[in-house]
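Quick log. Single chain, no ligands specified.
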Amino acid sequence: MTERYVCIHGHFYQPPRENPWTGSVDVEGTASPWHDWNQRITDECYAPNAGPPSNYERLSFDVGPTLMRWLERERPDVYRAIVAGDGDNQGGSGVGGRGGAMAQAYSHMIMPLANDRDRRTQVRWGAADFEHRFGRRPDGMWLPETAVDLATLEALVDEGVRFTVLAPHQADRVRVPQAESWAPARDGLDAGQAYRQVLPSGRDIAVFFYDGPLSRAVAFGGLLDSGDEYAGRLAREAASGPAPRLVSVATDGESYGHHHPHGEKALARAIQILDRDPRVQLTTFASYLDKYPPRAQVQIAENTSWSCVHGVSRWTGECGCGDVDGAFDVPWRGALRGALDGLRESLAAYFERAGSEVLRDPWSARDDYIACLLDPAPEAREAFLAVHMTADGSADEAIRLLEQQRYAMLMFTSCGWFFGDPEGLEPRQVLRYAIRALDLSAGLPEAALVATEFRQALGSLGPFFDRVLGEHGPAALSWISGLET
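-> predicted structure:
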Protein backbone atom coordinates (compact mmCIF):
# COMPACT_ATOMS: atom_id res chain seq x y z
CA MET A 1 0.00 0.00 0.00
CA THR A 2 1.27 3.47 -0.89
CA GLU A 3 2.65 5.79 1.76
CA ARG A 4 1.85 8.91 -0.24
CA TYR A 5 -1.15 10.85 0.95
CA VAL A 6 -3.28 13.81 -0.06
CA CYS A 7 -5.35 15.89 2.36
CA ILE A 8 -7.71 18.59 1.07
CA HIS A 9 -8.86 20.93 3.83
CA GLY A 10 -11.73 23.41 3.63
CA HIS A 11 -12.10 26.14 6.26
CA PHE A 12 -15.84 26.93 6.13
CA TYR A 13 -16.72 30.08 7.99
CA GLN A 14 -19.05 33.05 8.10
CA PRO A 15 -19.08 35.63 10.87
CA PRO A 16 -22.08 35.70 13.20
CA ARG A 17 -24.59 37.99 11.47
CA GLU A 18 -27.60 37.93 13.79
CA ASN A 19 -29.10 41.17 15.03
CA PRO A 20 -28.33 40.92 18.77
CA TRP A 21 -31.77 42.26 19.74
CA THR A 22 -33.88 40.01 17.48
CA GLY A 23 -31.69 36.93 16.99
CA SER A 24 -32.37 37.03 13.24
CA VAL A 25 -30.16 38.12 10.37
CA ASP A 26 -31.20 41.45 8.90
CA VAL A 27 -31.39 42.13 5.17
CA GLU A 28 -27.87 42.59 3.77
CA GLY A 29 -28.22 44.58 0.56
CA THR A 30 -24.79 43.65 -0.80
CA ALA A 31 -25.92 40.00 -0.91
CA SER A 32 -28.87 40.80 -3.22
CA PRO A 33 -30.89 39.14 -4.64
CA TRP A 34 -30.48 36.92 -1.57
CA HIS A 35 -31.71 38.14 1.81
CA ASP A 36 -28.23 37.96 3.36
CA TRP A 37 -24.75 36.56 2.83
CA ASN A 38 -25.40 33.38 4.80
CA GLN A 39 -28.24 32.49 2.45
CA ARG A 40 -26.26 33.40 -0.65
CA ILE A 41 -23.12 31.45 0.24
CA THR A 42 -25.17 28.46 1.37
CA ASP A 43 -26.80 28.31 -2.07
CA GLU A 44 -23.50 28.86 -3.87
CA CYS A 45 -21.23 26.68 -1.73
CA TYR A 46 -22.42 24.81 1.35
CA ALA A 47 -25.43 23.16 -0.29
CA PRO A 48 -23.73 22.23 -3.61
CA ASN A 49 -20.86 20.58 -1.73
CA ALA A 50 -23.43 18.34 -0.02
CA GLY A 51 -23.87 16.65 -3.40
CA PRO A 52 -24.54 14.09 -4.47
CA PRO A 53 -21.79 13.14 -4.22
CA SER A 54 -21.01 14.76 -0.88
CA ASN A 55 -17.60 16.40 -0.92
CA TYR A 56 -17.74 16.62 2.87
CA GLU A 57 -17.32 12.85 3.05
CA ARG A 58 -13.86 13.05 1.45
CA LEU A 59 -12.57 16.33 2.84
CA SER A 60 -10.79 17.45 5.92
CA PHE A 61 -12.86 20.43 7.06
CA ASP A 62 -13.84 22.77 9.86
CA VAL A 63 -17.04 24.79 10.07
CA GLY A 64 -17.44 27.82 12.32
CA PRO A 65 -19.70 27.12 15.31
CA THR A 66 -21.82 30.22 14.75
CA LEU A 67 -22.30 29.21 11.11
CA MET A 68 -23.29 25.69 12.17
CA ARG A 69 -25.82 27.19 14.57
CA TRP A 70 -27.35 29.19 11.71
CA LEU A 71 -27.36 26.20 9.35
CA GLU A 72 -29.01 23.99 11.95
CA ARG A 73 -31.82 26.51 12.27
CA GLU A 74 -32.18 27.74 8.67
CA ARG A 75 -30.84 24.92 6.46
CA PRO A 76 -31.07 21.66 8.41
CA ASP A 77 -30.58 19.63 5.22
CA VAL A 78 -27.14 21.14 4.67
CA TYR A 79 -26.37 20.92 8.37
CA ARG A 80 -27.12 17.19 8.41
CA ALA A 81 -24.95 16.61 5.32
CA ILE A 82 -21.99 18.32 6.96
CA VAL A 83 -22.34 16.33 10.18
CA ALA A 84 -22.73 13.09 8.24
CA GLY A 85 -19.65 13.94 6.20
CA ASP A 86 -17.40 13.53 9.23
CA GLY A 87 -17.81 9.76 9.15
CA ASP A 88 -16.66 8.97 12.68
CA ASN A 89 -20.04 9.52 14.33
CA GLN A 90 -22.07 7.69 11.68
CA GLY A 91 -20.68 4.25 12.25
CA GLY A 92 -18.33 4.70 9.32
CA SER A 93 -14.59 5.05 9.23
CA GLY A 94 -14.23 8.52 7.77
CA VAL A 95 -11.42 9.32 5.32
CA GLY A 96 -8.37 7.14 5.90
CA GLY A 97 -9.96 5.63 8.98
CA ARG A 98 -10.76 8.88 10.83
CA GLY A 99 -13.39 11.58 10.60
CA GLY A 100 -12.42 14.65 8.63
CA ALA A 101 -14.00 17.32 10.82
CA MET A 102 -11.92 19.66 12.96
CA ALA A 103 -13.18 22.07 15.60
CA GLN A 104 -12.82 25.83 15.46
CA ALA A 105 -12.39 28.45 18.18
CA TYR A 106 -15.92 29.60 18.86
CA SER A 107 -16.48 33.09 17.45
CA HIS A 108 -13.41 33.62 15.24
CA MET A 109 -11.50 35.84 17.62
CA ILE A 110 -7.83 36.55 16.81
CA MET A 111 -6.40 34.43 19.59
CA PRO A 112 -2.97 36.05 20.11
CA LEU A 113 -4.78 39.37 20.68
CA ALA A 114 -7.18 37.86 23.24
CA ASN A 115 -6.66 37.84 26.98
CA ASP A 116 -6.18 34.55 28.82
CA ARG A 117 -9.80 34.28 29.94
CA ASP A 118 -11.27 34.85 26.48
CA ARG A 119 -8.74 32.51 24.91
CA ARG A 120 -9.72 29.72 27.31
CA THR A 121 -13.45 30.24 26.84
CA GLN A 122 -13.16 30.39 23.05
CA VAL A 123 -11.37 27.05 22.95
CA ARG A 124 -13.70 25.41 25.48
CA TRP A 125 -16.79 26.63 23.67
CA GLY A 126 -15.37 25.53 20.31
CA ALA A 127 -14.57 22.04 21.62
CA ALA A 128 -17.95 21.70 23.34
CA ASP A 129 -19.81 22.86 20.24
CA PHE A 130 -17.93 20.31 18.13
CA GLU A 131 -18.65 17.47 20.55
CA HIS A 132 -22.34 18.40 20.64
CA ARG A 133 -22.63 18.32 16.85
CA PHE A 134 -20.21 15.58 15.81
CA GLY A 135 -20.54 13.25 18.78
CA ARG A 136 -16.85 13.12 19.69
CA ARG A 137 -14.12 15.28 21.17
CA PRO A 138 -12.06 17.10 18.54
CA ASP A 139 -8.64 15.80 17.57
CA GLY A 140 -7.74 19.06 15.85
CA MET A 141 -8.78 22.70 16.06
CA TRP A 142 -8.52 25.33 13.36
CA LEU A 143 -7.41 28.71 14.69
CA PRO A 144 -9.17 31.80 13.32
CA GLU A 145 -7.02 33.18 10.47
CA THR A 146 -4.52 30.53 11.72
CA ALA A 147 -3.34 33.29 14.10
CA VAL A 148 -1.13 31.59 16.67
CA ASP A 149 1.06 32.00 19.70
CA LEU A 150 2.27 29.56 22.34
CA ALA A 151 -0.41 30.58 24.85
CA THR A 152 -3.08 29.63 22.32
CA LEU A 153 -1.48 26.24 21.72
CA GLU A 154 -1.40 25.69 25.48
CA ALA A 155 -5.14 26.39 25.55
CA LEU A 156 -5.70 23.78 22.83
CA VAL A 157 -3.78 21.14 24.75
CA ASP A 158 -5.78 21.99 27.89
CA GLU A 159 -8.87 20.78 26.01
CA GLY A 160 -7.24 17.60 24.69
CA VAL A 161 -6.64 18.91 21.16
CA ARG A 162 -3.86 16.94 19.45
CA PHE A 163 -3.04 19.15 16.45
CA THR A 164 -3.60 22.33 14.51
CA VAL A 165 -2.82 23.47 10.96
CA LEU A 166 -0.75 26.52 10.02
CA ALA A 167 0.64 28.25 6.94
CA PRO A 168 4.26 27.39 6.07
CA HIS A 169 5.52 30.90 6.84
CA GLN A 170 4.31 30.40 10.43
CA ALA A 171 7.21 28.04 11.13
CA ASP A 172 10.27 29.79 12.54
CA ARG A 173 12.81 27.00 13.11
CA VAL A 174 12.84 23.23 12.63
CA ARG A 175 14.98 20.39 13.92
CA VAL A 176 14.97 16.98 12.28
CA PRO A 177 15.79 13.74 14.13
CA GLN A 178 19.44 13.34 15.07
CA ALA A 179 20.19 16.97 14.28
CA GLU A 180 22.07 18.80 17.01
CA SER A 181 20.90 22.27 16.08
CA TRP A 182 17.87 24.09 14.75
CA ALA A 183 17.63 25.29 11.15
CA PRO A 184 15.64 28.27 9.89
CA ALA A 185 12.33 27.01 8.56
CA ARG A 186 12.83 28.86 5.29
CA ASP A 187 15.79 26.55 4.62
CA GLY A 188 14.38 23.25 5.80
CA LEU A 189 10.59 23.11 6.26
CA ASP A 190 9.18 19.95 4.75
CA ALA A 191 5.41 20.40 4.68
CA GLY A 192 5.05 16.70 3.88
CA GLN A 193 5.10 15.67 7.54
CA ALA A 194 3.77 16.61 10.96
CA TYR A 195 5.92 18.49 13.46
CA ARG A 196 6.04 18.53 17.25
CA GLN A 197 5.89 21.87 19.05
CA VAL A 198 7.11 21.64 22.64
CA LEU A 199 5.25 24.15 24.82
CA PRO A 200 6.45 26.15 27.82
CA SER A 201 4.46 23.82 30.09
CA GLY A 202 6.54 20.86 28.86
CA ARG A 203 3.61 19.40 26.95
CA ASP A 204 3.54 19.25 23.16
CA ILE A 205 1.14 19.51 20.24
CA ALA A 206 1.40 18.35 16.62
CA VAL A 207 1.45 21.01 13.91
CA PHE A 208 0.80 20.50 10.20
CA PHE A 209 1.86 23.06 7.61
CA TYR A 210 -0.16 23.07 4.41
CA ASP A 211 1.48 23.36 0.99
CA GLY A 212 1.59 27.10 0.34
CA PRO A 213 2.04 27.23 -3.46
CA LEU A 214 -0.63 24.58 -4.09
CA SER A 215 -3.09 26.23 -1.72
CA ARG A 216 -2.56 29.61 -3.39
CA ALA A 217 -3.11 27.99 -6.77
CA VAL A 218 -6.47 26.67 -5.57
CA ALA A 219 -7.58 29.92 -3.93
CA PHE A 220 -6.18 32.46 -6.38
CA GLY A 221 -4.41 30.75 -9.28
CA GLY A 222 -7.21 29.16 -11.29
CA LEU A 223 -6.46 25.54 -10.36
CA LEU A 224 -10.20 24.98 -9.81
CA ASP A 225 -10.82 25.60 -13.50
CA SER A 226 -10.13 21.88 -14.00
CA GLY A 227 -10.73 19.03 -11.58
CA ASP A 228 -8.42 16.87 -13.65
CA GLU A 229 -5.56 19.33 -13.35
CA TYR A 230 -6.25 19.79 -9.63
CA ALA A 231 -6.00 16.05 -9.02
CA GLY A 232 -2.93 15.77 -11.23
CA ARG A 233 -1.06 18.52 -9.39
CA LEU A 234 -1.82 16.92 -6.02
CA ALA A 235 -0.80 13.44 -7.16
CA ARG A 236 2.42 14.65 -8.77
CA GLU A 237 3.42 16.55 -5.67
CA ALA A 238 2.65 13.55 -3.44
CA ALA A 239 4.78 11.32 -5.66
CA SER A 240 7.83 13.55 -5.30
CA GLY A 241 10.24 13.26 -2.40
CA PRO A 242 10.73 10.43 0.09
CA ALA A 243 7.85 8.46 1.59
CA PRO A 244 5.91 8.65 3.83
CA ARG A 245 4.69 11.94 2.46
CA LEU A 246 1.62 14.10 2.99
CA VAL A 247 0.54 16.81 0.56
CA SER A 248 -2.10 19.05 2.11
CA VAL A 249 -3.90 22.05 0.73
CA ALA A 250 -5.92 24.42 2.91
CA THR A 251 -8.15 27.22 1.68
CA ASP A 252 -11.39 28.90 2.58
CA GLY A 253 -14.04 26.27 1.97
CA GLU A 254 -15.97 28.96 0.13
CA SER A 255 -13.44 28.58 -2.71
CA TYR A 256 -15.49 25.55 -3.73
CA GLY A 257 -18.51 27.25 -5.26
CA HIS A 258 -18.69 30.81 -3.93
CA HIS A 259 -15.33 32.40 -4.72
CA HIS A 260 -15.05 30.15 -7.78
CA PRO A 261 -18.41 29.31 -9.39
CA HIS A 262 -18.74 25.53 -9.88
CA GLY A 263 -15.58 24.98 -7.85
CA GLU A 264 -17.45 22.27 -5.96
CA LYS A 265 -17.73 20.33 -9.23
CA ALA A 266 -13.99 20.59 -9.84
CA LEU A 267 -13.43 19.39 -6.29
CA ALA A 268 -15.78 16.42 -6.75
CA ARG A 269 -14.00 15.51 -9.99
CA ALA A 270 -10.57 15.75 -8.33
CA ILE A 271 -11.72 13.53 -5.46
CA GLN A 272 -13.07 10.97 -7.91
CA ILE A 273 -9.74 10.83 -9.76
CA LEU A 274 -7.65 10.67 -6.60
CA ASP A 275 -9.78 7.85 -5.21
CA ARG A 276 -8.89 5.80 -8.30
CA ASP A 277 -5.20 6.69 -8.36
CA PRO A 278 -3.12 3.84 -6.87
CA ARG A 279 -0.19 6.19 -6.28
CA VAL A 280 -1.93 8.14 -3.50
CA GLN A 281 -4.48 7.88 -0.71
CA LEU A 282 -6.89 10.57 0.40
CA THR A 283 -6.55 11.10 4.12
CA THR A 284 -7.29 13.45 6.99
CA PHE A 285 -4.83 15.12 9.32
CA ALA A 286 -6.01 12.96 12.24
CA SER A 287 -5.59 9.74 10.28
CA TYR A 288 -2.12 10.69 9.08
CA LEU A 289 -1.12 11.63 12.63
CA ASP A 290 -2.24 8.21 13.87
CA LYS A 291 0.01 6.49 11.33
CA TYR A 292 2.97 8.84 11.42
CA PRO A 293 3.47 10.71 14.70
CA PRO A 294 5.82 13.69 14.36
CA ARG A 295 9.52 12.99 14.54
CA ALA A 296 10.79 16.47 13.66
CA GLN A 297 10.34 19.48 15.93
CA VAL A 298 9.24 23.01 15.10
CA GLN A 299 9.27 26.35 16.82
CA ILE A 300 6.39 28.40 15.53
CA ALA A 301 6.64 32.05 14.57
CA GLU A 302 4.42 33.62 17.20
CA ASN A 303 1.82 36.30 16.46
CA THR A 304 1.50 35.28 12.81
CA SER A 305 -1.50 34.39 10.64
CA TRP A 306 -2.27 33.10 7.16
CA SER A 307 -3.88 36.31 5.87
CA CYS A 308 -1.53 39.08 7.03
CA VAL A 309 2.11 39.11 6.01
CA HIS A 310 2.77 41.48 8.91
CA GLY A 311 1.72 38.97 11.58
CA VAL A 312 -1.54 40.02 13.22
CA SER A 313 -1.24 43.73 12.38
CA ARG A 314 -4.30 43.55 10.15
CA TRP A 315 -6.38 43.47 13.35
CA THR A 316 -4.56 46.31 15.14
CA GLY A 317 -4.35 48.97 12.44
CA GLU A 318 -0.59 48.72 11.97
CA CYS A 319 -0.65 47.63 8.32
CA GLY A 320 -2.70 48.18 5.19
CA CYS A 321 -3.68 44.57 4.44
CA GLY A 322 -7.18 44.37 3.03
CA ASP A 323 -7.29 48.03 2.00
CA VAL A 324 -8.01 47.86 -1.72
CA ASP A 325 -6.02 50.46 -3.66
CA GLY A 326 -5.40 52.53 -0.54
CA ALA A 327 -9.04 53.61 -0.50
CA PHE A 328 -9.30 53.95 3.28
CA ASP A 329 -7.34 55.27 6.22
CA VAL A 330 -6.80 51.98 8.07
CA PRO A 331 -5.61 53.37 11.45
CA TRP A 332 -9.31 53.20 12.38
CA ARG A 333 -8.60 49.55 13.12
CA GLY A 334 -6.31 50.46 16.00
CA ALA A 335 -8.93 52.79 17.48
CA LEU A 336 -11.57 50.06 17.25
CA ARG A 337 -9.25 47.50 18.83
CA GLY A 338 -8.28 49.84 21.69
CA ALA A 339 -11.87 50.88 22.36
CA LEU A 340 -13.09 47.29 22.49
CA ASP A 341 -10.18 46.21 24.68
CA GLY A 342 -11.07 48.93 27.17
CA LEU A 343 -14.75 48.06 27.06
CA ARG A 344 -13.96 44.37 27.60
CA GLU A 345 -12.06 45.17 30.80
CA SER A 346 -14.84 47.40 32.16
CA LEU A 347 -17.47 44.78 31.40
CA ALA A 348 -15.31 42.03 32.92
CA ALA A 349 -14.95 43.96 36.19
CA TYR A 350 -18.71 44.45 36.32
CA PHE A 351 -19.38 40.81 35.47
CA GLU A 352 -17.04 39.62 38.19
CA ARG A 353 -18.49 41.99 40.79
CA ALA A 354 -22.19 41.54 40.00
CA GLY A 355 -21.79 37.92 38.96
CA SER A 356 -20.33 36.97 42.34
CA GLU A 357 -23.70 37.76 43.88
CA VAL A 358 -25.59 35.27 41.72
CA LEU A 359 -22.96 32.78 40.50
CA ARG A 360 -20.67 30.63 42.61
CA ASP A 361 -17.75 31.20 40.24
CA PRO A 362 -18.62 33.67 37.46
CA TRP A 363 -15.77 32.74 35.12
CA SER A 364 -16.32 29.01 35.51
CA ALA A 365 -19.99 29.62 34.78
CA ARG A 366 -19.06 31.52 31.62
CA ASP A 367 -16.89 28.62 30.44
CA ASP A 368 -19.84 26.25 30.90
CA TYR A 369 -22.52 28.59 29.50
CA ILE A 370 -22.07 27.04 26.07
CA ALA A 371 -24.35 24.24 27.32
CA CYS A 372 -27.28 26.69 27.38
CA LEU A 373 -26.50 27.93 23.88
CA LEU A 374 -26.38 24.41 22.49
CA ASP A 375 -29.56 23.28 24.24
CA PRO A 376 -32.12 26.07 24.70
CA ALA A 377 -34.59 23.77 26.48
CA PRO A 378 -35.68 25.02 29.93
CA GLU A 379 -34.43 21.79 31.48
CA ALA A 380 -30.88 22.46 30.23
CA ARG A 381 -30.94 25.97 31.65
CA GLU A 382 -32.24 24.70 34.98
CA ALA A 383 -29.50 22.06 35.13
CA PHE A 384 -26.87 24.70 34.37
CA LEU A 385 -28.19 27.06 37.06
CA ALA A 386 -28.40 24.24 39.61
CA VAL A 387 -24.64 23.84 39.29
CA HIS A 388 -23.57 27.47 39.01
CA MET A 389 -26.13 29.76 40.68
CA THR A 390 -25.86 30.80 44.32
CA ALA A 391 -28.61 29.73 46.69
CA ASP A 392 -30.28 33.15 46.70
CA GLY A 393 -29.29 34.17 43.16
CA SER A 394 -31.65 35.38 40.48
CA ALA A 395 -31.81 33.18 37.39
CA ASP A 396 -32.70 36.11 35.14
CA GLU A 397 -29.81 38.17 36.49
CA ALA A 398 -27.36 35.31 36.04
CA ILE A 399 -28.40 34.80 32.41
CA ARG A 400 -28.31 38.55 31.72
CA LEU A 401 -24.72 38.77 32.92
CA LEU A 402 -23.67 35.69 30.98
CA GLU A 403 -25.27 37.07 27.83
CA GLN A 404 -23.34 40.29 28.38
CA GLN A 405 -20.14 38.26 28.32
CA ARG A 406 -21.21 36.36 25.22
CA TYR A 407 -21.60 39.62 23.32
CA ALA A 408 -18.37 40.94 24.84
CA MET A 409 -16.63 38.08 23.01
CA LEU A 410 -18.66 38.32 19.79
CA MET A 411 -17.57 41.95 19.46
CA PHE A 412 -14.03 40.69 18.72
CA THR A 413 -15.05 38.65 15.65
CA SER A 414 -12.07 38.99 13.32
CA CYS A 415 -14.09 40.14 10.29
CA GLY A 416 -14.64 43.51 11.96
CA TRP A 417 -11.06 44.41 10.99
CA PHE A 418 -10.55 42.30 7.89
CA PHE A 419 -11.52 44.75 5.16
CA GLY A 420 -10.51 48.34 4.62
CA ASP A 421 -13.93 50.02 4.82
CA PRO A 422 -14.50 51.29 8.38
CA GLU A 423 -18.26 51.47 7.81
CA GLY A 424 -18.77 48.11 6.12
CA LEU A 425 -21.05 45.31 7.28
CA GLU A 426 -18.35 43.77 9.45
CA PRO A 427 -17.34 46.77 11.62
CA ARG A 428 -21.04 47.58 11.93
CA GLN A 429 -21.70 44.11 13.30
CA VAL A 430 -18.97 44.18 15.95
CA LEU A 431 -20.21 47.61 17.06
CA ARG A 432 -23.73 46.21 17.36
CA TYR A 433 -22.40 43.47 19.60
CA ALA A 434 -20.56 46.05 21.70
CA ILE A 435 -23.71 48.13 22.05
CA ARG A 436 -25.68 45.03 23.03
CA ALA A 437 -23.08 44.19 25.68
CA LEU A 438 -23.44 47.74 27.01
CA ASP A 439 -27.22 47.42 26.89
CA LEU A 440 -26.98 44.33 29.10
CA SER A 441 -24.83 46.30 31.57
CA ALA A 442 -27.40 48.92 32.47
CA GLY A 443 -27.08 47.95 36.15
CA LEU A 444 -23.45 49.03 36.20
CA PRO A 445 -23.24 52.12 38.45
CA GLU A 446 -20.76 53.79 36.12
CA ALA A 447 -22.52 52.54 32.97
CA ALA A 448 -22.89 55.97 31.37
CA LEU A 449 -19.24 56.75 31.99
CA VAL A 450 -18.13 53.41 30.49
CA ALA A 451 -20.26 54.01 27.40
CA THR A 452 -18.99 57.58 27.04
CA GLU A 453 -15.36 56.50 27.31
CA PHE A 454 -15.97 53.79 24.75
CA ARG A 455 -17.50 56.23 22.29
CA GLN A 456 -14.63 58.67 22.75
CA ALA A 457 -12.00 55.94 22.34
CA LEU A 458 -13.45 55.11 18.92
CA GLY A 459 -12.08 58.39 17.58
CA SER A 460 -13.03 58.81 13.93
CA LEU A 461 -15.48 55.92 14.25
CA GLY A 462 -17.50 57.83 16.85
CA PRO A 463 -20.07 59.24 14.37
CA PHE A 464 -20.45 55.77 12.84
CA PHE A 465 -21.08 54.39 16.34
CA ASP A 466 -23.78 57.04 16.80
CA ARG A 467 -25.49 55.99 13.59
CA VAL A 468 -25.36 52.30 14.49
CA LEU A 469 -26.72 53.17 17.93
CA GLY A 470 -29.55 55.15 16.36
CA GLU A 471 -30.63 52.15 14.29
CA HIS A 472 -31.85 50.43 17.43
CA GLY A 473 -33.89 53.30 18.85
CA PRO A 474 -33.64 55.22 22.09
CA ALA A 475 -36.40 53.27 23.78
CA ALA A 476 -34.24 50.24 24.49
CA LEU A 477 -31.01 52.18 24.89
CA SER A 478 -32.08 55.54 26.29
CA TRP A 479 -29.25 55.74 28.80
CA ILE A 480 -26.68 55.26 26.00
CA SER A 481 -28.33 57.42 23.37
CA GLY A 482 -28.25 60.40 25.72
CA LEU A 483 -24.46 60.40 25.84
CA GLU A 484 -22.59 63.62 25.28
CA THR A 485 -20.52 63.52 22.09
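The mean pLDDT is 94.
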